[in-house]
Amino acid sequence: MKRVYAIVFFVALFFVHGVSAQRVEKIPYGDMEQWQTRVVKESFLLGGETKKLYDLAPTAEKVGTIPYRRNNISPWASSNVLAAPAGIVKTSCSVTPEKRGNGYCARLEVVEEHCKAIGIVNIVVVASGSIYLGGMDEPVKTAKNPMSKLDQGVEFTKRPSAIQFDYKTKRAQQVYKATGTPKISKLDGKDNAEVMLLLIHRWEDADGNVYAKRVGTAVEKFGKDVLNWVNGYQIPVRYGNITKESYYKNYMGLINSSSANPYYTTNSKGDLVPVQEVGWAEAGEAVTHMVLKISSSDLGPYVGTVGSVFWVDNVALVYDEN
C-alpha cells in the first residue's frame, strides 16, 4: 500500500511541475552587465565640469556631446539626458551602474538637477531614474512636455506569462516638485517605484496618429523599503479586459493623450506622437508592441521623493511551457 501511495504522489508531483514549468528569456542587456559611458563637458557658463552619462549598451566610452539614439543593438533607453537649453550643454544622470557581487545592477534614483547661468537660464527639475524600451529625443532643448521626449515601445509579438527581475528599494518620504522654474516646492503624498509592462496591438492612420488596444497588462508599485535583494520576483501578465477583476487598480487602466502621463512613439512620418489606447483587446488579439518602463518614482515628470532609489537586475520575460 505504501508503494501505491508513493507512486500516486510521484505522478501528482510530476503533473504539477509539468503544468507550472516555465521558460525564462532575458531581455537583451537586461542583466545590467554592459554599460556605455558618455563623457560630457558641460558649458563653461555652468562651471565647465566633466560629467558622465550611462546607457545600457555594449561597453564603450564616448567623449563629447554625443546624443544616444534608439538602435538595433540594445532595446533600452533611460532618463539620463544630454540637454542643451538655450544652447547650454547640461547633463542629468539619474541611472547609473552599481556593483552587485561580481557584476552590476542598475541604480535608479530620484534626483534634483540645477541648470543656472546668470541672465540666460535658471532651471531646477526633479528627475526620476527610469529605464525603458525605446529611445530619447536628444539633445533635449526645453523642459516642456517631457513625456514627449521619450520614444517608448518596441516591436514584439510574443505572449509572456510574467515579467521577472531582481530588485530592492529605499524610499524617501518628502515629495518635491520642480518643473523647470527656479522654484522647488514641497508636496503632500506618497511616491512609489513602478514597473509597467504593456502588450499592445498598435496601428496608425493616414495622418500619423497612433492607436492601440491593450492586450496584456503587468503593473506593480513598490512603496516600502526593501533593503535586501528579492531575486526572481514576478509580476503576472494579465490578458484582456481586467477592469472587473479583484486585482485591478486604477493605475492599470488604459492610457491616452488625456491621461496624466501618456506615452509617445515615433510614427511612420518620423514624428513623436502619443499612443491612444482606445480599448481592451479581444481574446486572441495579436501583440504588435511591448512597452516596458521601470522607474524609481510613479508621480510623473518633475515630481518625486528626492533620494528614493530602486535597484533592478536580471530583467526577463517568463513563458509557461504547458
Structural write-up:
The chain is mainly beta and 322 residues long. The chain has a single domain, classed as BT2081, beta-jelly-roll domain (Jelly Rolls). The chain contains one helix and 26 strands. The chain has one helix spanning 2-20, and strands at 22-26, 36-41, 50-55, 60-63, 76-78, 81-83, 90-92, 95-100, 103-109, 111-117, 121-127, 130-136, 150-152, 154-155, 162-170, 175-177, 185-187, 193-204, 210-222, 226-236, 238-239, 264-266, 272-280, 289-295, 303-304, 309-320. Strands 5, 12, 13, 14, 18, 19, 21, 22, 23 and 24 form a ten-stranded mixed sheet that branches. Strands 1, 8, 9, 15, 20 and 26 form a six-stranded antiparallel sheet that branches. β2 (36-41) and β3 (50-55) form a beta hairpin.
What key phrases describe this protein's structure?
322 residues; mainly beta; Jelly Rolls; 6-stranded antiparallel β-sheet; globular; disordered N terminus
